[in-house]
C-alpha cells in the first residue's frame, strides 16, 4: 500500500491527494541562487546589517544592557541575617547584630539594594527586641520561681 492510497481514505471533499513535500520523486531541490546569505556566519560582509560590535547583538542591534548591575552584597547579607535570626539561629544575638550593622552599611553604600537593606534592618531590630524580651521574661521568671530555692 503506498502513501497516496493509505491517505486517500482520510481525504475530505475537494481536498487534493497527498504528495511528498519536495516533489514527486522525494528529492530536496537545490538552493536558489537568489539566497546566498543562507549558511553564512553572522557579520559576514554580504549579510544584512553591520557586523556585531562590542555593544551590539548578533543582529547588529545596539545592546542597551552593557553596564553591569550595581552590587547588592551587603543588602542581601543583611536580609539573610535578618531571616536567619528568626529561624532559630538568633539565640546568641549574632545574626540580629549582623543584620543591623550590614543593613546600615548597605543603606550608606548601596542605593540599588535599599529595599533589601531596609527589610534586613527591620528584621534585625525586631529580632533584637524579641530576644531582649525573652531574656528579660526568663530572668524575671527564674528570679521569682519557688522551685529554685528549695
Describe the protein's architecture and organization.
By secondary structure, this protein is mainly α. 46% of the residues lie in helices and 0% in strands. The chain is built from four helices and no strands. It has helices at 3-8, 73-89, 94-109, 114-143. Helix 2 packs antiparallel against helix 3 (94-109), helix 2 (73-89) runs parallel beside helix 4 and helix 3 runs antiparallel to helix 4. The longest helix is centred in the C-terminal third of the chain and has 30 residues, at 114-143. The radius of gyration is 36 Å and the shape is elongated.
Question: Count of helical segments?
Answer: 4
Amount of helix: 40-55%
Main sheet: strands, sense, barrel: none
Tell me the radius of gyration.
36 Å
Terminal residue distance: 102 Å
Poorly predicted sequence stretches spanning 5 or more consecutive residues:
none
Portion of residues in beta strands equals: under 5%
Mean pLDDT: 77
How many DSSP-defined strands? 0
Q: Which structural category do the helix and sheet elements fall into?
A: mainly alpha
What is the N-to-C succession of helices and strands?
Answer: HHHH
Overall morphology: elongated
| Oligomeric status | single chain
